[in-house]
Prior knowledge:
Order of helices and strands of chain C: EEHHHHHH
Structural class of chain C: mainly alpha
Largest sheet of chain C: 2 strands, antiparallel
Oligomer: heterotrimer
Helix content of chain A: over 70%
Structural class of chain A: mainly alpha
Strand content of chain C: 5-15%
Shape of chain C: flat
Amino acid sequence: MNIIDDIILHSPALIVAIPLLGAFLTPLISKINDKVRNVFVISIVLFTSAIVLLLANDIYSACGKIHTYVFGGTAAITEGGFAVRILFEVDGLNIFMAIITTILAISGVIYSWAFMKENTGLDKYYTLYLLMIAGMFGMILTGDMFNFFVFLEITSIASCALIAFWTSKGKAVDAGFKYIVISAIGALFILFAIAILYGQYNALNMAVLASNIQFSFLDKIALVILISGLAMKAGIVPMHMWLPDAYGRAPASVTLILVGVTQASLYGALRMIFTVYGGKLTTTINQIGDVNIDLNLLLGIFIVGLALVTIFIGVLMALKENNFKRMIAFAAVAEIGYIILAIGAALTTVFSATDPRTGIMALKGGIFHILNDALDIGLLFLVAGAIYYATKETSLNRLGGLARNMKYTTIFFLIGLLAVSGMPPMNGFASKLMIYESTYQVNPILSIIAILCSILLLAVFVKVFHSAFLGPKLPKFDNVKEVPKSMLLAMGIIACIIIFIGLFPDLVVNNIVQPAVNALTNNSNYINNVIGGI
Amino acid sequence: MIYNIPYIAVVALIMIGLYAVVFKRNLIKIVIGILLIENGVNLFLITLAFRQDSIAPIYRGTGSRLMSLPVPHALTLTSIVIGVAVLALMLSLIIHIYRHYGTLDARKIGREEE
Amino acid sequence: MIEIQDFLRTLGTNSGFWNPLVWGIIIVIALLIAYIIRGRGKKEYKKQTEQTKVFLSGNPELEKEEMHIKASNVYWGFMESFKWLYTGLEKMHTGNVSDYILWFVVVIGIFFIILGVI
């Protein structure tokens, strides 16, 4: 067996372990020199990315392949039938989320070099940064409920400390406090739901739970709490209010990773709905007349309702906001709304016996939009950070004429603007087109509202473009210069990926998104692969 | 009935904690509320571990008597450790908030203006 | 592995399709038409004459800082006509962490009623 096979075999553990180890080595390394530390951090992240790509190559080599890694054993279940071993499992959806995290992590670290250069305490900053990345990878790759909770808490503690990193500003500390309260309560409720499930089935393993689940009354309570808790972490209206506070006050490089954290929570919700409760989604809960009220229908309608509110309020608040980063944060809320709109629409139709194609298409659009949303919103946050770095202003009311001094930043902002508002040929258009068309077949009103809000989203960013970049050159910004090269490089990486996905959407959908959708809709494959057909 | 008392205590703890978080103004009381919720969840986990007539899994050579599976205890320990970390972080943030605003009233701080 | 023609494939969405290549060709044609129309225009524009100066209906030119329309004024009319909506939304975003948790409890309650009672 050669070394590559060995690395692939142990890759799920390595992906989490390397950033974790690197995080605690960073304070030691930074005793030597700042440059050495920067090189060390980026090499840790690049090494992790290389392993993710190796694993991705392995997963995509065969259709429906699932890589299961059990800690301290080979089988998921011990002799005697206790399903208590911690295991990581990687299927199409996990590796899809891991690729997103990789892109965000690489550009975030590169961006931090110049962006955070003026600050003190950078050894702690990078430690927390790597911890956050490790926690995210853990959340994404784990196949164990309690392990999911632990990584959720690791991520929230690290990100809370990073949100409040600029402690000299009262608002930043306040935003950090709000974030930790929200995530602590959300995580505790998730733990409560996990305990309910454990109490019934004596298992913490997602696959074992999925194969045993009965959908009793207690399971209903667990489902309610799990989805609500994860929805709060994902920032779904009306539980989104922490999100603009936290995104708006954190350093831009941290906000980039926070976007990934919300999406990891969204991934958790997807995993709970489609995998753990996947076998019971078509149970009939009630009958009204001749119509069967199935669980997937009820859940789908509820999620679609939340999604419409999310899109609408997110966009309307973004239109009013004058603080650049808070505005993008509200736009991020709206974008999350598009994802869950697609997922809700998919839930209502994907299990229908006659025509599941609409549901599959909606699911494809939703999953594809997770990738696009992370890239677009991430790029916009980086641009906002660049403007803050150059001018020390956050309010759009005091900005103007920056396009004359910051040419590259303006180009990157334009790319982000077109992508986030779903204009061709950027990536946002491809996924939004899929969402519009599939939701139109579910109910035309959904897609009308979605398109209307997308136009409003364009209006939001046109306002930013007008007030920050266009207009006469303001005298107070005379000596504003273009931001340093490392920040431009980070923005350039994301912008290139956006354009690539925009130009070749079918390539991405077929090779990356399709396996993720297959992994979601086919939960018996998951169960069989992980616990070996019991 | 007697076996249901811990579950009632769990629900009571969580409810009291939520009440404190939602209706109390003082940030420290909000933190206390979170701790109450956490204790409730931990108590729930511990209660789940109990099986009637079982013994703790630390004794050996007791013959055929039932042993309770120690997984929930391990979970509770982990959860307590995480709870301590969260508590420390929250209290340190409260110190910073008090330095900046001179008050701990949740309604007086936090609103974003602009 | 990925072949070269995979890059050019059309993204099919049940009832429609999307191919950036087609879009690109159309954009190029549109630009060409625009260029032809532009070429037929008059050539009376002269640099550094009165023509290039700012003309504000005869009013004097303001300071540069005042000439720029501020972000909060861009959609003034929209904000004004939707004031009833925005006052409600403003009230919702209190910035108080207790209210955030209250919303969480409310959502759990609604969700539970939907799933448990219906």
